[in-house]
Fold each of these.
Amino acid sequence: MNKTLVLTLIVLSQFFGTSLWFSSNAILTEIATAHHLVSKNLLANLTIATQLGFIIGSLGYSLLNIADRFYANRVFSISILLASLANAAILIPNLSFSIVFSCRFATGFFLAGVYPVGMKIAAHFFPKSVSKALGVLVGALVLGTAFPYFIRSFNINLSWFFIIFISSSLAIVGGVTMLFLNTPSKENVQKININIIPKLFKNKAFKAASIGYFGHMWELYTFWTFLPLLILAYKNEHQINLNVSLWTFLIISSGAIGCVVAGKLALRKETFKVTKTSLLISATCCLICPFSFWFTPYVFLAYLIIWGISVVADSPLLSTLINKTSLKNYNGTALTLSTCIGFLMTIISIYFFNLLLKEMNIQYVFIFLAIGPMIGFLSLTKKSLS
């Protein structure tokens, strides 16, 4: 099968699967209203349910070496089917909070067999250009993250029922599509090997790449989460007319360009050098943030676009390094495990950021996000990855 077609099918299947996460997060208010749910921090709890499900799921997939013991395309397809059913279960009327929470948790849990496994499949098909393939793959996911803001910017009133139904249906299509690809056969791994996790982290190169990824994740999702508030604060400070949702979409989606460009650059230059450059730029953006409210609107928005590009450009490159430095036959487990810990870092970072917001203005809080990319920058050296 043509390589371009293969990558297109992988990207579409992955995009359809992760739309279960992104599209539902954009309509949590409507879901809560439809089921008459009223509780303190309801929306935060439903958001955490999906994140927590993904973390527990990816830990389980890692411990059981599922992505390496079974055919990757079948793991992907079964996981995406179960995730779509859990997502669609919310359509049942008059559910209690615990049931809705469980549905979101289960959706996140089974998505652990979609995102990391999709990266393993892409790495199999493009062994000599992994960074480029993952750049396109992660770039598509960035667009998926940003797309709900694009819809919201036009005040389009779509039924939450319709969004859930379509996202679940597309996810099933993605799962079926993956079955037709000549995806990698199962690795030479027959038994569960729980000891593989400590063995992975004894590998100096894998540990360095993973620390880089964890630092990157400390910044990424917190930046995406609180970006609309930063733009809104600037808008109120300067009393100007800004479409917050549209600019949030443009800034987050600019990261897709960063992923694709960084992936191609890594083919010509050393991957870790391109990764470190991206980490350094995004860390600098964090440190500049307190002064950004002095910028004119055009400079402020240009600055945020640069940040939006650099904050995620290193993501496919770090996954490439993790894939490259993992133990033989266990790259699926390695990618799933690193993703698990990375998403755990996002919860800690978002919680910490939210606490700081109660004590200081938002432009000053973003300084603390620089901790992540700076740790990642320092962990990636030629010596540590050799």
Amino acid sequence: MAKLTFTISALYLATVGLALMFFPLQFGTGAVPKDAAPELLALLRLLGGPFLGIAVLNWLSRDVEASAHRPVVLANIVGFGTVAANDIWGVASGEARDIAKIFLVVHLLFTFAFLASACSRQHVHR
């Protein structure tokens, strides 16, 4: 299960990172104005970098020994969990775009997948 979670999350994060870097207006449809300031576009592109970095980390972690997964799994739980919490806030308050409902589900699924991975590892190591 961990290998699949690492693989799918790496592909997802790489897609988001590349979209932010190369298509920030299209990726931000409904949130980013069509006449966005160059500074905003530069900020969105800047945010794509860490997504790509975490994508590479997850991709490389998929074949690593299970005992070495703990820090990467915990980082993904924190990352996807906080993003899911932000999605919940945005959807519940009505501040988020309609597509945020889809991202909310995706981010919750990744959070639960990494939580399941963490829990299964603890039972294996006891």
Amino acid sequence: MGSPEARPREEAVNPLLNTQRHVHTAAVAGHRTALEDALRSYLHRRLRDAEAVDREFGRELAGETVRFTLGGGKRMRSLLAWWGWIAGGGTTDGEGAHSALQACGALELIQTCALVHDDVMDGSPTRRGRPSVHARHTAEHAENGHGGEPRRYGEALAVLVGDLALVWADDMFGEALAGVPRPGRARPVWRELRTEIMAGQFLDVRAQARRDRSEGAALRVNLLKTASYSVERPLHLGAAMAGADGETVDALRGYGRDVGTAFQLRDDLLGVYGDSARTGKPVGEDIREGKCTLLLGAGVRLAGEQEDAAARDLLARVGADADPAEVADTLDRLGARDLVRARCEELAARGAGRLDGLDLDPVVLEGLRGLAARTGTDPA
């Protein structure tokens, strides 16, 4: 523990701030624990069902789905859905709350589907600092000397893991919905969330295949693949289940679009300038794959505006033989990195401002403001 002098001055002057922060941290930890318990209980029940169908199916495929889902992640999407539930007037105890926790937890299974399938499509060797699902099964198949192509086997297993996670997500959500106050308002949000994430993934794959370098395309992918699915729709889903008024829903959705987009832009910066130990994925992977990001799109535009032929030629080779470190330096020199940083700050601040005037639970309000503040800071 550092001395009081080493802490921010306001905390040393006003110890109440420390107390309030500790209360908030404990409350958020309690929310995460409740969500984790609901998710774990449901998954263990489904695992027993799977083992009853077939022992190997249960142990290998269903077991892989459960292990991946419970084995990492910050539960951000389910936590935001829970905060949307509270913001919309939902209770934190009783049958309604229990059902809401299960419904919110279903988002973690959609996340499993998205991550496992995304790694297959991108050919990513790692996830969360460990071998990705398809990479691990490919290696095991090769080591065991089984017939067939190891890569195809590994990718097939990963596709099935993602598919099972999506099926279970629908089951988990549908089962819980009967116990919330406004199931009819929540169902359309769930449908939209699932469709939008597929649309975002499609646009991401297509932009990469067409070597699209436009800033507009990057922002569209960010909106559908990340902002909507990661922040806007989880908040919307929770609020809809509770029967929130229109003003609250509009404010939460506006917050979600802004902060969710900033979240992806920050992730793009981490992917180029971050630390693999923090991200769990190799730095420079987006450059090697030729991902359509605002960072790259801005760099291409700025290289043209500055008539920098060397930069234009280098950025044209992104996704082919361009060196990621050289691309990172070039984007920094052109001003693309600063542009994306500024955009993150602007979006995060605008998102936080949308909460002004809402009568929100203090823990939820501080949590949302804290997320916006972290999203708006330079990650690297």
Amino acid sequence: MRRARGFTYLALLIFIAVMSFASVLTLEVAETSAQRSAEAELGGIGREFNRAFAAYYRLAPEGAVRFPSRLEDLLLDPRVPAKRRFLRRLYADPLSGRREWGTIPAPGGGIMGVYSLAKGTPRRHLGHLMPGPYPSAFQARGYAKWVFGYNPMAPATTQASAPVQR
């Protein structure tokens, strides 16, 4: 009888160890899945920013500023008297949860692109990025390498519809 109790205790310890290992694996898979989902959402939001910056630049009235001076200008174009919107709303960064974005200054003034301020290393590499060159002050790692916007100096065939790491 005493021997059976020892075996049961050992079996219980092994069972707890296996369940702990399975729990850790499950949590890791869930974390990876959540991060991939947030990265995919960031890619979709980035494509919206790409289109908005390109449209804002291309539809500039004669003599008007070519790039928005602030992100809110993409919501309602201040250069024309009629309502003209390039974005429906300023999106929150799905990785950080904040509505705060890093901005890429345009050569002639204004903002030509945005990037995520989230910390961490991306798990995925996306298709295409806003073509360079970027201002030399922009040297970043991680998600900040995923730049969304419009670069009029890049050939039209390389203009991006989705981001990629630089």
